[in-house]
Amino acid sequence: MTMALKTRIPFRSELLESAFVRYYLRGDGPFGAAPLRYIDTSPRRLASALGETDSQDVSEQVFASFDRASVGDALTWGSPRIIQHEDGPGFFRYLVLSCLIASVSTELADEGNYRDRLRILLGFHLSDLSGTSKLWKRLARWSDSARAKGLPFRKVILPDPGAMTQIGFSLKIAFPSRRDRDRCEGIAADLFGMLDEPTQVIHFFRRQIDRYPWSDGFKAAFFEFEKRFQAGDRLLLDHAFWYFIKETAQQVASDGSNDASCLRMVPDLDREPQAEAISVSKVESDGRWEHVDRVGYVLSGGLEYVLQTLIANSRRLDGILYKASREATKGVLAFKEDGWGSWSWSQHPDSAYVRLLVHDRIHERCPQYFGLRKASAHWWMSEQMGQGQFESICTALGIASPPSGALKRVAAEGGIKTAGMYLGRRSLLPIIRAHAGVEVAIEPQRAELGTLELGQLQDDRIQLSSTARLSGRWRISVTESDRAAPSELSLTFIDRAVLHPSLTAPNPDAWRRDAEASGFREIEIRQGSHIGRPVGQVSDSMYDLLEAVYAGGRSGWSEMDLIPLLARISGTHGPRPWDLLRALRDSRWLDPWVARGWKARRWFLSPIKLVQAGETIILSGAAGEVSRERFARIAEELGGQVEIDGTVGCWAVPLIKATHVDAAQLSKAIGLELQRPIVLDIQKAPLCWSNQHENFDRRELVSRWDWKNERFSYTSDPGASPVMLETWIRPARDSPDLYRVVRRDGSEALFANRTAAILETYRLARRPLFEKRGSWLFAKTSDGRLPDVAVDRLRLRHLIAPGIVSNSSEFGYAYPVDENDMVWLGERLGSELFEQESISKFHPAFHFRTARGEKFFRATIMRRG
């Protein structure tokens, strides 16, 4: 066969070497740290490796990059031209070329023997290829040596070359070939929809393996997969053969599109669970889907809204979301735990823990021991359950339980990333998902700070722990049996968040600030006379929380992601996640914005700034540890004194401030403009509330305020209270929720903000929401909070951020106040909201912490470590 080649622009040898090493060989590349057994050199893979957007001619360009002399030295004599760089063997490009020759499309060369294909593709003939096997063995030795030094490279496992001592490695490692892919699509196109189970796939290809001339790589991959599965191995989800089959099935079903859709939920004990549906392609003619570049389209909001929308649009959905909508129509949905309080729908959940959602019409059929609670207007949610209980309930409700042959993969879940590395804080370490009964080993590759250790092993989840903060790289090896090499993960940690070069600001056309009260004029601030004493030092967990919020918040946080993070850090015995979120808002770490066209709220990091309050300079905004250290160091160098004020308690957001320093010099040295504190006055309630003019049409009532338990309830009786508070939603959720306050005389008022609605309800009912104890104002209920304008005034007057206080395992929410503040609050918000002083179990015991620059911060780090 002769081949007419078009003019091709070759790649530089340096580019080929570095690109192939980064893509195929490094443990932090797209294939992870699993052993290298196969190399896929399809045009799509080559284009991805080389950063090309068009894969049409990429194979020809690669061939054009090699000349006879260099290829002969490498493949004949085993003496390649080494390219020296930071890492990599320097000759890997020749081995990728040898795999490409074995697997290239028949459009470029026929199915002749290997040497004929090399002559056609490269334009010259090589009869002796004994250097090829030498290079493969050299690569395997190099990989072992590099890994022993702690470098992040995959272990190279060579197959048995059989009788082909020169090119056997290349023929069996090259998988899949273009011929394998075309043949697989041709013979199984009509059957892929039924090939869901490994047993079905093995049975089908067993009958095809001798009927067609599959490549050596295909047969080797299939036989290995079959042998391991039949021997009981289940960590095969990332096996090259299974990955190829599922990838081909997706291409056959959807013309190459990859379905990354999902439906996930974050449970909440106090409010309606939040849900989120992600679709690769937007539902046609439905404006409720927000476009997000990284995932496609997102539909988010309350559980009821998301499920109703999916059910209503089921015929226009495809893939996972179509299946989820059909199950929702039946009235039963099973969710598996993804880690950190997030749960995703799965038709066959195979995780250690499962939650079920059941509709009202299914509720009566559920077993008595099921333990359901009302989650939304029409849905009930179970507590988390193990697989045994889940399977028994599946039988009772008539839903399918997970198949026994389900495949799994080793993966890291959870954790917070900063510049591509995990944040190495003890309360934020990722969880390793594997398979029950495996052996796990941790090997440090570059341990700079701390020690990574194995924590609790529970079902298919492997907890990680550390004795201190972590910085460096560790390799985690998971061995299922002696039939295969260990599956590996390479995890890199850093002990603090990398500074963001910039922060994403909300688009005012799509978002508006979630204001609770409207200020109408600036007023002069005078420092207060706060004399209370704080409750102790800020906890390590709170510092971890701040660093995690900063690290993951460059583009803002959705509540779906933020609430599970706060719940993870607070733990079982810590404060409510919603209280932690309120503390971040009250300290001006996060600013909430609500969507204009649908129900959603997003939390954006507040840019850091310097605020001068009297003789004190405050570092305001979302200041991560790097920024706090820099502020303290520069202030100390200028002769100032730095104080970290965690006055409220161990779960407070600390206020960092400097005194005895020239403000202008500090501003210039840090590079931040000095701002004066802006405090706004507000009119008397009800004129002060920030009510948005929302349309009340086509809304339905979903909950009322339960005066006995002082919270919203889906089943509460309005009782004999003179004031009712109701939540009204649009079923289409194309608008934020509205809160209606109704008096016995029939008068009513609408609110778009939850806090403002509760405050006005209690004012009209003449029931107190707060009580003053000494120099602190305590909230009496979990939903009673002062509006943001009032909080700004208190924080800047007393230079103390309000927040969570604790006594043993009980928590409250407190604000620093003096008599002047109480007069101002009573006049603006209504004196009915505030109870006179009383004796309480909360008696803050103060302990101020002062610091002197870098020395203080490093000492703090060591203590926390």
State the main characteristics.
alpha+beta; 9-stranded antiparallel sheet; 6-stranded mixed sheet; 40 strands; globular; disordered C terminus
Written overview of the protein:
Helix content is about 30%, strand content about 25%. The chain has about 850 residues and is α+β, with helices and mostly antiparallel strands. Strands 3-4-2-1-6-5-7-9-8 form a nine-stranded antiparallel β-sheet, sandwiched between helices. Strands 28-24-25-27-26-40 form a six-stranded mixed β-sheet. Strands 11-12-18-17-14 form a five-stranded mixed β-sheet. A hairpin with a 4-residue loop joins strand 8 (about 370-375) and strand 9 (about 380). Helix 1 packs across helix 2 (about 45-50), helix 13 crosses helix 14 and helix 20 packs antiparallel against helix 25 (about 855-865). The radius of gyration is 31 Å and the shape is globular. The termini are far apart.
What is the gist of this entry?
The chain has 865 residues and is of the alpha+beta class. The longest helix has 19 residues, at 130-148.
